[in-house]
Design goal:
The protein has about 250 residues and is mostly helical. The protein is built from 9 helices and no strands. The longest helix has 26 residues.
Amino acid sequence: MARRRTAVVRGKALEGVRKGGARARAGLAHLADRIIDIAPRVPVRDLTTLREQFPGLGPEEIADRLVAGAAKATATVGAGVGAAAMMPVPPAMPTELAAEVTGVAAIELKLIAELHEVYGVRPAGTLAQRSTVYLNSWSQERGIEATKPSTVSAAMNSRMKRELRQRIVKRTVRNLPNLMPFLVGAAVGAVMNRRDTRKLAARIRDDLRKVQVPWDELPALPALERPADALPEHALELDTGAGRHRKDDDPG
């Protein structure tokens, strides 16, 4: 029954987006621009830092830990938005959805960037250029395209913004049921975000494995610069490597 209701909600949401016209398009464009603005502000740990924080672990083991941490972080975002729907006077739904989409995007962009480090395929270029690569990877849910020189050197263009906006529409519509009281808000939001982050990570890792460079073959790389206006670390933590790895955080 819940699945049927979810399908109905999604169908109505898609219809609303189609009929919303200029106002809906403007709102989605603004949301996409916010994510584009956030991307260069995401702090990324380089391979050296990751290996220090995860001593004795290989690429796949570190990647597993990063994915588990990201899934837990996006689940927390989803649970918070879902819980808002259970309040006596819910906050404005569009605002809550925008907060969830941008929050999840920042966490997943950090995950994608650090997976590139772990698999030894850091994109060349400046912070802005690498951020463009990670946005492209996030919007297409792929990793291998990010390694093409033409993609690395490309500036943010209308095609990329269009693809990013399409991804945002897809994710927004998918998360609308999180805000519906009859779907038990918080639990649904957490489960959906955890599942979707793991699926995204699996696709990215499959692509990165095809072009992976072993650590002992990597040339010396400079440390990654920290953005001047970096987003707060505590809101984006995937896994610091500190403490014992808990069973409930295991990948899978």
